[in-house]
Amino acid sequence: MPRLVWRRAELVGGTAESAGARTLRFLVPGWPGHLAGQHVDVRLTAEDGYTAQRSYSLAAPADGDLVELTVEIVPDGEVSPYLTEEIQAGDQVEIRGPVGGWFVWRPASVTPVLLVGGGSGIVPLMAMIRARRQAGSPAPFRLLYSLRAPERGYYADELRRPDPGLDITYLYTRSVPEGLSRPAGRIMLDDLAEGGWPAASEPDCYVCGPTGFVEAAADLLLALGHAPERIRTERFGPTGG
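That's the Ferredoxin reductase sequence above. Prediction below.
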């Protein structure tokens, strides 16, 4: 495996995803490419030489020297406030990666896929959805996306567009939109049984979100009979932002 190096990354575009999250597109000359589900390290360096770095999931499949991240602000953080509120087109940071080889989806696979995302855990799963679409893959996807409230969702417009072979189920934990019969609450066995694939279909399952959410969802998948080796998890917790 080649040694990972820090590369200069220039911001070339950005899009607000919610009140506290922003998608950033960087031009990274010499970028080696990546797989959907991998992540990168981002490093900021202050004028006095102080550095801070954090890891962020890649939000889109490989596209030449372009790297796309979606960052959610962490109050009092060192990196996320700059990336979500201050950085401007033309500004530079350093990026190192790609990192990770287990929590990835490869377009050559035709196995059914179940994506289970909690909050900003949707980011690497969205990279998989986009990679599937980009490759014209026949693999059927199902996404269960758990949110506190509708306005907290990422990629809302894109996920509303018809995408043959992708079925989406939204779960809300705090505020439920009008007309939805499921009450607000955490992910449950019935949610995965109804919105996911049966274990007999032998899907590849990808679960990403806060630690508690990931552990609960993985336990429910096991209870439904899914093979442990087909359940891949990626979790995040407080890092200082």
